[in-house]
Amino acid sequence: MRPVILVHGIWNTAAIFRPLKIHLENAGWPTYTFSMRPNNGDAPIEALAQQVNQFVNITIGPQQPYHLIGFSMGGLISRYYLQKLGGLARVHKFIAICAPHAGTVLAFGSNRCGVRQMRPNSPFIRSLNQDAHQLEHIEVSSLWTASDLFILPPWSAKRKVGAHQRLNIPSHNRMIRDRAGLEAIAQILNQT
Predict the structure, then answer these.
(1) pTM listed for this prediction
(2) CB neighbour list of residue 95: distance below 8 Å, 6 or more residues apart
(3) Which residues sit opposite 102 in a β-bridge?
(4) Which residue stretches of 60-157 are H helix?
(5) Whole-angstrom Cα distance, residue 48 to residue 2?
(6) Digit-coded pLDDT (tens) for 19-45
(7) What DSSP element (H or E) covers 142?
């Protein structure tokens, strides 16, 4: 099985993925997590994507294909890595979970650089979505919930590229620890 790299979101660390990591490892997927710094929105998303690039190259080497899962802001970090830093050459499947692909109005509540980038119609969001067609070269899935209070409106987590699935999970963070979320993620990884 291909390795799986998990990329967390703002205010999170690798610890948020504990239930998902255990679930995937029990199913046989070699799963890797790491904590990006700073995780509070002070760093631009581009700098965090560089951390993903470094982690991948150190952890699984420069040639090994793998799957990438980005949660929340981690979905945008992962997309920047894929679209701008060459990740498309190695990633087989990309799963974005509650990622603000079209931004979130909640980002207007902070002036931190990384948070500003998540505002709807921000220069960062516009740039990322202008060449989103690049994602057509890999398998892309977006998982989202209508009960998300962090990604507002919740449907901005739907991507026009690839498949998207709405899960009836009652909150943002529960998407990566609720049984329905864990099974949906594993099912996407198991699809040939």
Answers:
(1) 0.97
(2) 67, 68, 69, 70, 140, 141, 142, 143, 185, 188, 189
(3) none
(4) 73-84, 113-116, 123-130
(5) 23
(6) 999 999 999 999 999 999 999 999 999
(7) strand 139-144
